[in-house]
């Protein structure tokens, strides 16, 4: 499983792909958890069953959903030249296909990146850095709905990112809601058309299509509504955390909240199984985002009036990411389990 915090830097080439991977298989074996390598296609919270892609069903007493989110869909985004930022396997597949096309042509291909949030901007900058020596140089353009990058209240960091895009030669089309993708072009809601040989999509968060759910209250975007104990509001046997969960007080879809919720989720599963009172998850109001600029520089965003930027911020991000991923190396987990007598 990939750690998305290191994804843009891996796309840029600062890490090898294996460095951002967590070996779920080994961790499951260590924890003696039975692992199914399959997609869940249906969740029935009334019958208390899940259905796997091969049609087999499984009953549950307690269910924890941590299935994340994918970019919001745009009409026509099923075309072969469209590359979603998530799932990560789809991103790598699409990136390889795009690079095969770059190798096969002596024309400068037009690359569109859709989405002006952290994911889209970081991805565009990472692609520009990855392809910096390619000739002819691909022409990258970033399309985003509002006039400003990032969310409201991030003016300082948005200004740094706008400069970084300019320096990297990435054209920026603000106020451009892309409403349709066709082979070779993308079109905005107000009828403008742009050439796009490949389209990378990082358009916020949506529930993975093709997943049926029954008996689960969901918010207007389809995410599962949970209470402060991460429990489905009308399905006490179902817990959810991370991007798929819609918290009582909404929070951005960010790995920070997913990671912080995980220990509470694990604890509450045990408490629910043993009939003890559940713990509350108090999601912090704001999270620090360290956003890579493609090069070995990053900008820190936390709605501050100033946005610290540079190599030191990149080193901080690198240290945090490396420490995070190291915690999930099977050797480290085995050592912790051994020390705590598990
Ligand atoms: C380019 C990019 C960069 C990002 N960088 C950062 C960052 O630096 N910091 C940060 O905090 N956040 C970052 N994010 C956001 C972050 O990726 C998410 O908020 C975080 O991954 C959410 O964690 P999660 O566990 O909820 O879901 P995910 O990490 O998305 O994991 C979901 C898992 O569930 C599996 N799954 C999904 N559906 C099914 C199904 N039906 N059946 C079985 N399995 C299923 C998936 O295969 C996946 O393994 C970034 C996102 C993107 C796109």
Write the SSE topology:
Layout: H1 7-12, H2 24-31, E1 40-44, E2 49-52, E3 57-59, E4 63-65, E5 82-84, H3 88-104, E6 110-114, H4 118-130, E7 139-143, H5 155-167, E8 171-173, E9 178-182, E10 184-188, E11 193-196, E12 198-201, E13 212-214, E14 224-225, E15 231-232, E16 235-240, E17 245-246, H6 255-273, E18 289-292, E19 298-301, E20 309-310, H7 311-326, H8 330-339
Flavin-adenine dinucleotide binds at residues 1, 4-5, 7-8, 39-40, 66-68, 85-87, 119, 122-123, 202, 208, 211, 242-244, 253-256, 258.
Describe this entry's structure for a reader.
This protein has 342 residues and is of the alpha/beta class. It folds into 2 domains: 146 residues, FAD/NAD(P)-binding domain; 120 residues, FAD/NAD(P)-binding domain (3-Layer(bba) Sandwich). It is 30% helix and 22% strand. It is built from 8 helices and 20 strands. Strands 5-12-6-7-8 form a 5-stranded parallel beta sheet. Strands 3-2-1-13 form a 4-stranded mixed beta sheet, with no helix packed on it. Strands 4-16-15 form a 3-stranded mixed beta sheet, covered by helices on one side. It is globular, with a radius of gyration of 21 Å. The two termini are 24 Å apart. The model has no long low-confidence stretch (mean pLDDT 94). Bound molecules: flavin-adenine dinucleotide (FAD). The site of flavin-adenine dinucleotide (FAD) has 27 residues, from helix 1, helix 4 and helix 6.
């Amino acid at each position: 499983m990939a750690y998305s915090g290191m994804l843009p830097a891996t796309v840029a080439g600062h890490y090898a792909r294996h460095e951002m991977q967590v070996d779920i298989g080994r961790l499951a074996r260590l924890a003696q958890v039975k692992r199914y390598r399959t997609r869940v296609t249906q969740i029935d919270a009334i019958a208390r069953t899940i259905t796997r892609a091969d049609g087999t069903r499984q009953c549950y007493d307690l269910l924890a959903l941590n299935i994340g989110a994918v970019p919001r869909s745009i009409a026509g985004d099923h075309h072969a030249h469209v590359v979603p930022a998530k799932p990560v396997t789809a991103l790598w597949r699409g990136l390889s296909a795009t690079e095969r096309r770059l190798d096969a042509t002596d024309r400068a291909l037009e690359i569109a990146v859709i989405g002006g949030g952290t994911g889209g901007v970081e991805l565009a900058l990472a692609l520009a850095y990855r392809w910096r020596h390619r000739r002819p140089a691909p022409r990258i353009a970033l399309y985003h709905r509002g006039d400003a990058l990032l969310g409201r209240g991030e003016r300082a960091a948005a200004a740094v990112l706008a400069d970084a895009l300019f320096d990297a030669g990435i054209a920026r089309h603000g106020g451009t809601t892309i409403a349709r993708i066709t082979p070779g072009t993308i079109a905005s809601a107000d009828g403008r058309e742009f050439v796009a040989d490949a389209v990378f999509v990082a358009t916020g968060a949506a529930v993975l299509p093709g997943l049926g759910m029954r008996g689960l209250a969901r918010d207007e975007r389809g995410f599962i509504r949970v209470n402060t104990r991460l429990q489905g509001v009308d399905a006490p046997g179902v817990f959810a955390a991370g991007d798929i969960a819609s918290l009582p007080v909404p929070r951005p879809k960010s790995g920070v909240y997913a990671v912080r919720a995980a220990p509470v989720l694990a604890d509450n599963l045990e408490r629910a199984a043993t009939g003890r009172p559940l713990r509350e998850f108090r999601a912090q109001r704001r999270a620090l985002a360290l956003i890579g600029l493609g090069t070995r520089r990053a900008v820190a965003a936390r709605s501050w009036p100033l946005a610290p930027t540079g190599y030191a911020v990149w080193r901080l991000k690198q240290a945090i990411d490396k420490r995070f991923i190291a915690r999930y190396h099977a050797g480290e987990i085995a050592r912790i389990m051994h020390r705590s007598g598990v």
